[in-house]
Design goal:
The chain is α/β, with parallel strands linked by helices. It has seven helices and seven strands; from the N terminus they run H-E-H-E-H-E-H-H-H-E-E-E-E-H. The strands form two sheets. The protein has a five-stranded mixed sheet with strand order 2-1-3-7-6, with helices on both faces. It has a two-stranded antiparallel ribbon with strand order 4-5. Strand 1, helix 2 and strand 2 form a beta-alpha-beta unit. It is elongated and about 90 Å long. The termini are far apart. The relative contact order is 0.14.
């Protein structure tokens, strides 16, 4: 007669040789739940969110997001999310190849609505040759983009029609960026030409420029 009694010794023997199976089962359950959650989690549509990419090696975007999100939600009540992301891609020739690959991947996937980047990068990716950024002249003319006397000459690049257009707005006067470890002296704001939330992205640029100007005067 077969002895099928469950004893302490048999349990100890079973778990000694089969513990990895239970560990694997738990790991698969956690992975499966995480996968299902990520696949079904709500994501705002493209016209209800704005992604801001800061191309500066030391930018503290976590603090920037924490400081600004409540204000942004009040200023843009029709928007559901504001995402700040730093890419360690500066203006020098010696760059982290991962940062370059990261930026290229995001752009290829048409991610990012607003960019803040050094002039050398702006010149590389903007204008008729680069094609990454949206011409802003019509938004200036309509009052959507408020320049408040900013010298925009550095933001003009050759356009496809053979003339020039405003593709970026210099951030040199926005010294409030320094509290987030961003040196604004050689940086420009731009809007991605592929953005599916262009008008709000331009309005956001106008808001950010004013906000980082005001943060300096408030601190004095």
């Amino acid at each position: 007669m077969v002895d099928n009694r469950i004893t302490r010794a048999r349990m100890r023997h079973h778990f000694t040789y089969n513990a990895w199976k239970y560990a694997l089962l738990v790991a698969l359950a956690v992975f499966g739940w995480d996968l299902i959650y990520n696949m079904t989690a709500y994501r705002p549509p493209a016209n209800k969110k704005l992604d801001i990419y800061i191309l500066a090696p030391s930018a503290d975007v976590e603090r920037m997001s924490a400081d600004l999100n409540a204000e942004l939600r009040a200023a843009f009540p029709d928007q559901e999310a504001f995402n700040f992301l730093a890419i360690a891609l500066g203006s020098g020739d010696q760059e982290d190849p991962y940062a370059q690959m990261q930026f290229s991947t995001y752009v290829s996937a048409h991610e990012g609505d607003v960019f803040l980047m050094p002039w050398s990068r702006f010149r590389q990716y903007g204008g008729a040759e680069g094609g990454l950024f949206l011409p802003l002249d019509e938004f200036v003319a309509s009052g959507t983009l408020e320049l408040a006397g900013i010298d925009t000459s550095a933001g003009r690049l050759p356009s496809p029609d053979g003339g020039s257009a405003l593709y970026g707005v210099p951030a040199a006067t926005q010294k409030g960026l320094e509290q987030y470890r961003v040196d604004s002296s050689d940086m420009l704001w731009s809007v991605a030409a592929y953005s599916r939330n262009q008008e709000n992205a331009v309005r956001l640029v106008s808001w950010l420029m004013k906000r980082f100007d005001e943060s300096v005067s408030k601190s004095k």
